[in-house]
Design a protein that fits this description.
The protein is about 45% helix and about 15% strand. It is of the alpha+beta class. Its cofactor is pyridoxal 5'-phosphate.
Length: about 130
């Protein structure tokens, strides 16, 4: 272990990991841009690996979360990040776990199955 740390192996590992996580974040951003409605606002993280997404006011992010989870898409409803019932039209998308790809396939499948969504969510993919 000492040899690994002193010979630069750990630094190399961290560089590779940061690069991989940056690519994943880019792929998540591209998938969200491709399959989410155009009237959203996406904020890339300043640090960390959550993409903060503002949806139109009429959207209940909890309902969106319940639909997404059925398609192996991990979204966090915005109110989880507030002490009061705020941010109900926001979601956070985690892009920093290794092995979460291919994200485009999951989002495309979710969009393709939009006909089976609750009426309140159908607008999301149309």
């Amino acid at each position: 272990m000492q040899c690994y740390l002193t010979k630069g192996g750990y630094d190399k590992h961290l560089r590779q990991l940061r690069h991989q996580l940056m690519l994943q974040q880019l792929q998540y951003s591209q998938a969200i841009s491709a399959y989410f409605p155009t009237d959203i606002r996406m904020t890339p993280p300043q640090g960390g690996y959550f993409l903060w997404i503002q949806l139109p006011e009429k959207v209940d992010s909890l309902m969106l979360f319940q639909s997404a989870i059925q398609h192996n898409i991990s979204l966090a409803p915005g109110h989880m990040f507030a002490s009061k019932q705020q941010f109900s039209n926001y979601i956070a998308s985690m892009s920093g776990m290794c092995g979460m790809l291919p994200v485009h396939r999951h989002y495309r499948h979710w969009a393709d199955s939009s006909h089976s969504l609750r009426p309140e969510l159908i607008w999301f993919f149309n």
